[in-house]
Amino acid sequence: MKWQGGRRSGNIEDKRGMSGGQKLTLGGIGGVIVLIIGFLLGGDPEQLLNQMQQTAPTEQGEYQSTPEEDRLLDFADVVLGSTEDVWKSIFIANGLDYPVTKLTVYNGAVETAGCGVGQSAFGPFYCPGDQKIYLDLSFNEELSKKYGAKGEFALAYVIAHEVGHHIQNILGVLEQTNAMRAKMSEREYNKVSVMTELQADFYAGVWAHHVKNHSNIELTYDDIVDGMRAAAAVGDDHLQEQAHGHVNPESFTHGSSEQRVQWFKKGYDTGDMKAGNTFNDPNLQ
């Protein structure tokens, strides 16, 4: 993946070395989405809830970044910039405005403006309350070592997936799905959650389709394969098998490895934002 020299977004907030000191609020769409996206890493629901209720220590001081972190930060900045260029173009073509999101990098824990305190254990997440993406750069190593999703494009896919949630927020999808939560059983809502996550995977694929035409980023076939491997690595079935030795489809919140690859690939193959209505897919009902 060639990305050096690409336009940087500049919409990066560096909060490494600082962590929030308030309890995470679970009420409202923000807390719900943080919890849902926390399952991206196959986190145990009870453990995540306990962590959400804990108070994170407040620390402030000069953060000593490593050369690898500096490289990853530059990479994330360029990838974010490319998502801005791609989605602005797509939104304009559809008669819409695209308000950009910001990417906040942190380590350990971070206080958000709309979702309380997020923690690295949740994995990368999007907070609808402040329309920001949160990423601990150490997740890149976890992608490779824990989940076997190697290659630079794996992290690019993750960022593009979270931007997909931002698009859903802009279009009102997250508000609608959150409203469904109070009217459904956990089992029923899990299906809605899967549809939501697969649509974000689809949007990541759409970005990959168009990125060569709107930025200096150059992707190869191997990069796209890396993206599909990353999607498969965080499939619910793969994570459950890895963590518990068995699979329970009724508890899926993000979709199986096959489904995640399928929707990412569909986005990449079509490049059509309108072709990703996962909520109308009879196979996901």
UniProtKB/TrEMBL annotation:
Subcellular location(s) per record: Membrane
Signal peptide: none
Annotated source species: Sphingobacterium corticibacterium
Domain of life: Bacteria
InterPro entries (UniProt xref): Uncharacterised_pept_Zn_put
Record bears the keyword Transport: no
Record's keyword annotation contains Protease: yes
Name of this protein: Metalloprotease
